[in-house]
Amino acid sequence: MTEVAGLTGELLAVSVGAVRTVGTGRRSIATGIWKAPVEGRVAVRGVNLAGDDQADRTVHGGPDKAVYAYASEDTAWWNELVGTDLGPGAFGENLTTRGLDLSSARIGDRWRVGTTLLEVRQTRIPCFKLGLRMGNPQFPKAFAQAGRPGAYLGILEEGDVGAGDAIEVVFRPAHDITTAFMSQALLHDAALRPRLLEAPALPAFWRGWLAGEDA
């Protein structure tokens, strides 16, 4: 474990959303990427937040993608780029944070938020649904290039969270495999991929995928 004293942030908003059907012009798809902030305490149980859902948990949600966090600082960067105020939940995130650099979050970092304990499990690989949410089919490509992927988290201890909660990083693994590094390895530089195995908390899916790539 490495030193984590003083590594804290704040939870600005908690956002959830039900699955809805959206037309793409050629077909209709189900998606839960539209999230909106909610007030009060929100239960974090199993593989989800109360009131939240995902349309296809083979690619979104599940134990290693139970909670998605995105930094308000990164949203502000996008605001400048796209010329509008995107607001909390715009990237489909459940937790909008302040004060933590989520691109530097290490796979295996553990966060105490409210009465929950969450663990950073992986980066985000953007899909076409992010383009639907942003009204721009080219947006996933821009997101992949930006190096601001946010963090998917698993639930180690169930509880509840609410806007205004402190986020305390209570554990950091000794490796330096961050969400940004994982994104770079998976999307842009295959030579980096073997290093992902240095992160003990890397999900079994990615371990199996890497093993298959080496086979």
TrEMBL record:
Coiled coil (residue ranges): none
Gene3D superfamilies reported for this sequence: PK beta-barrel domain-like
Domain MOSC as annotated: residue spans: 36-170
Cross-referenced SUPFAM superfamilies: PK beta-barrel domain-like
Identification of the protein by name: MOSC domain-containing protein
Species whose genome carries this gene: Paraconexibacter antarcticus
